[in-house]
């Protein structure tokens, strides 16, 4: 197709990179996919899948000293589990400037497949109101697209990935292409019935999840086996991951070259043609440097890592990034505050004779109910939040010791339900990622420095979540109710977004409506960094949809000779 | 040896052979009987004396005794505790647990003139009750609770705990959120 080594280079192999590789190779492009992490092959490299705790070092619990030294951020993404640690970044070897700004927990993966192996799999669409919010309340840049622009691409990725959920007809949480939902247990059904009756503006629905309830034999994937050990890797391919879904598709085209252990340090830019002309790498094991060349580049390194790469990609003879003519690169960093928690027990005797068989990979969801029809009179904050949770029945607590304690631990306690509140964070110009002026990593790349804080709106929203959570638990008739907030640390929900935000105007935004850099139209940034706002829903499905949409546009542009 | 076993399990699991529990129960008991006190672990920094090991075993077995299913010793909990204390715990936590054990043994020697491991079960239980109620002389605060939690974790994460005492479900295959407890009368493990 061209004089380049490759038609396209995809930087990163996580949720977004995997989709970019799949779509571009299937459209006939020769693609090089680079990942800084080590190789993980589907099934073969899931060493702890299907093992009992006695078969794992320290019964599956990473020693605390190791967590403090090597996984001080990854510990918030599951590195405390032996079976997950191997998929996470070693923060000692690959640090960021965590001590130099307000606390930001940058949870990173350490392998090919990125966070797609260990993600939470909740797959919800942004609603029409999410793409309108910035324009309406003036925070951040107005999105250059609307829901209808992305809706068909949601359908496209949902159908292939396999999303289980229920159609609910909610305008602000649009339905998608769903497999049947994972069934509710008796506690979840009990809560749904009682809460929806007591508070008619609240809904309790199956959370929508990328864990299949039907087989996809054409992809070699089976439905969920109810092990709920997803983040160890799943040889059934029951949940969406690069390894199970997009990588096999891309490989099947014979158009893919995948290189692991390749750290992208920066992009080479030609100011005359306004194009990126090369991708500079360093081999994580051999320290060998190389510059790969292609016609187009998909930057999918993860939201913050893509920012770091762009910030480190200078105009020739300048210390300014080529991608920052707007002055907005690295700004509007967002995450979902989520440490508002509420829970309760079903009263004694309710469903006392039944328990759970198997382990469900997904729970229930109370979709956003705040500020949907204009501003609620009693809401002192903008936008809203959703509540993610589930019902379960745990083992009775251990009382005393000896034979009586042992007998007691053969029984179950009361059914319980519990939720986390996920709130929308407003885009703030001065919530930033920058490059540390002096600290570099072992590859000579300046370390990422975060200056991200939650503000008044987030604090009021999370406090409202406590009040509403308690009210909902009370209205449903639960007992032992708890509703509380813990410190909301940005990064905690691992939904970090922004920094290369989309917008209509090149003077105020970094990427356009097709995820293209305003400053280099042959670069498409399709991970979370391009998000102009966060909604209150989990974002990975949206990254998939944007990536597929951008790939389609990119190939058309290439074929038309436009880029 | 244990490694081979896990590999066989995993292959069985992935081909769907090991979909239910049943037969796996016998193997770990048999192995535990043969192995006696073989811990199955080699602590990187073994630090207990023979007396401390006997004490740890005796206390563990009273916290989770042999009933209709094996107890803490058969489940190799004492060796697990030594391994965790030497390799996993912070030094301060280790001192806390060891201080609690020492206080338990001292009470046995004072009251009965023998080490804790050598007195009758009823006598042992009386001392442990005192430890639980935080009335044992010289026992660091909360040391018994730390020890108790360590025994509970070690037992229910062991092969015996997961597959004999509990009903191991590595591949449930389906989810039922209204499953009669009377079908199992036990707790499922994973």
UniProtKB/TrEMBL annotation, chain A:
Matching InterPro entries: FAD/NAD-bd_sf, GMC_OxRdtase_N, GMC_OxRtase_C, P2Ox-like
Domain Glucose-methanol-choline oxidoreductase C-terminal positions: 427-546
Cofactor(s) demanded: FAD
Signal peptide range in chain numbering: none
Annotated ranges, domain Glucose-methanol-choline oxidoreductase N-terminal: 78-337
Alphabetically ordered keywords of this record: FAD, Flavoprotein, Oxidoreductase
PANTHER family for this protein: PYRANOSE 2-OXIDASE
The protein, known as: Choline dehydrogenase
Organism the protein comes from: Asticcacaulis taihuensis
TrEMBL record, chain B:
Parts of the chain that traverse the membrane: 12-30
The keyword Membrane is assigned to this record: yes
Stated name of the protein: Gluconate 2-dehydrogenase subunit 3
Lineage: Bacteria, Pseudomonadati, Pseudomonadota, Alphaproteobacteria, Caulobacterales
UniProt keyword annotations, A-Z: Membrane, Transmembrane, Transmembrane helix
């Amino acid at each position: 197709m061209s004089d380049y080594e490759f038609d396209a280079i995809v930087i990163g192999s996580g949720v977004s990179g995997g989709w970019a590789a799949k779509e571009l190779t299937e459209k006939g492009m020769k693609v090089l996919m680079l990942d800084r992490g080590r190789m993980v092959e589907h099934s073969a490299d899931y060493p702890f899948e299907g093992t009992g705790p006695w078969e794992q070092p320290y019964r599956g619990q990473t020693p605390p000293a190791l967590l403090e030294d090597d996984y001080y951020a990854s510990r918030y993404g599951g590195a405390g589990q032996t079976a997950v640690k191997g998929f996470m970044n070693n923060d000692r070897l690959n640090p960021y400037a965590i001590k130099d700004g307000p606390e930001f927990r940058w949870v990173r993966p350490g392998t090919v497949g990125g966070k797609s192996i260990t993600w939470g799999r909740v797959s919800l669409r942004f609603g029409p109101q999410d793409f309108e919010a910035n324009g309406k309340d003036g925070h951040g840049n107005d999105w250059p697209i609307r829901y209808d622009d992305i809706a068909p691409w949601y359908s496209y990725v949902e159908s292939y990935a396999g999303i289980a959920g229920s159609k609910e007809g909610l305008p602000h949480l649009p339905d998608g292409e769903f497999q049947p939902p994972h069934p509710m247990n008796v506690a979840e059904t009990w809560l749904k019935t009682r809460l929806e009756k007591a508070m008619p503006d609240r809904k309790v629905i199956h959370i929508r999840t990328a864990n299949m309830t039907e087989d996809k034999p054409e992809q070699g994937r089976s439905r969920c086996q109810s092990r709920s050990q997803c983040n160890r890797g799943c040889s059934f391919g029951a949940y969406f991951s690069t390894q199970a879904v997009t990588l096999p598709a891309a490989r099947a085209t014979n158009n893919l070259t995948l290189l692991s252990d390749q750290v992208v340090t920066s992009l080479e830019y030609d100011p005359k043609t306004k194009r990126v002309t090369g991708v500079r790498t360093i081999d994580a094991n051999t320290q060998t440097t190389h510059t790969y060349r292609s016609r187009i580049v998909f930057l999918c390194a993860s939201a913050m890592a893509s920012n770091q790469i762009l910030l480190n990609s200078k105009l020739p003879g300048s210390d300014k990034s080529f991608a920052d003519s707007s002055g907005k690169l690295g700004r509007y960093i967002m995450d979902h505050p989520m440490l508002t928690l509420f829970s309760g027990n079903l009263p004694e005797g309710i469903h006392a004779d039944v328990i759970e068989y198997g382990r469900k990979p997904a729970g229930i969801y109370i979709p956003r109910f705040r500020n949907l029809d204009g501003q609620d009179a009693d809401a002192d904050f903008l936008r809203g939040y959703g509540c993610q949770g589930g019902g379960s029945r745990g083992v009775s607590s251990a009382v005393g010791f000896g034979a009586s304690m042992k007998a007691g631990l053969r029984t179950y306690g009361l059914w319980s339900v519990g939720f986390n509140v996920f709130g929308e964070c407003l885009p703030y110009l001065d919530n930033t990622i920058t490059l540390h002026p002096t600290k570099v990593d072992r590859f000579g790349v300046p370390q990422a420095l975060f200056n991200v804080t939650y503000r008044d709106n987030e604090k009021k929203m999370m406090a409202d979540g406590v009040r509403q959570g308690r009210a909902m638990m009370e209205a449903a008739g639960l007992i032992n109710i708890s509703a509380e907030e813990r410190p909301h640390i940005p990064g905690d929900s691992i939904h970090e977004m922004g920094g290369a935000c989309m917008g209509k105007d090149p003077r105020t935004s970094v990427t356009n409506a097709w995820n293209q850099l305003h400053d280099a139209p042959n670069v498409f940034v399709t991970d979370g960094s391009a998000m102009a706002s966060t909604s209150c829903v989990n974002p990975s499905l949206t990254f998939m949809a944007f990536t597929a949409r951008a790939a389609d546009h990119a190939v058309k542009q290439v074929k038309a000779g436009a880029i | 040896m244990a490694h081979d076993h896990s590999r066989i399990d995993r292959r069985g699991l992935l081909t769907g052979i090991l979909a239910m529990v049943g037969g796996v129960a016998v193997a770990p008991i048999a192995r535990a009987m043969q192995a006696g006190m073989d811990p199955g672990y080699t602590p990187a920094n073994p630090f207990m004396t023979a007396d401390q090991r006997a004490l740890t075993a005796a206390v563990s077995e009273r916290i989770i005794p042999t009933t209709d299913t094996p107890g803490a010793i058969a489940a190799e909990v004492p060796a697990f505790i030594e391994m965790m204390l030497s390799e996993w715990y912070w030094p301060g936590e280790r001192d806390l647990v060891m201080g609690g054990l020492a206080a338990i043994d001292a009470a046995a020697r004072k009251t009965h003139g023998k080490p804790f491991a050598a007195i009758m079960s009823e006598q042992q239980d009386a001392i442990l009750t005192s430890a639980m109620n935080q009335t044992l002389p010289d026992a660091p605060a909360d040391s018994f609770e730390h020890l108790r939690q360590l025994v509970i974790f070690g037992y229910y994460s062991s092969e015996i705990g997961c597959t004999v005492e509990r009903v191991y479900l590595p591949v449930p295959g389906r989810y039922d959120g209204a499953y009669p407890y009377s079908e199992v009368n036990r707790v499922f493990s994973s």
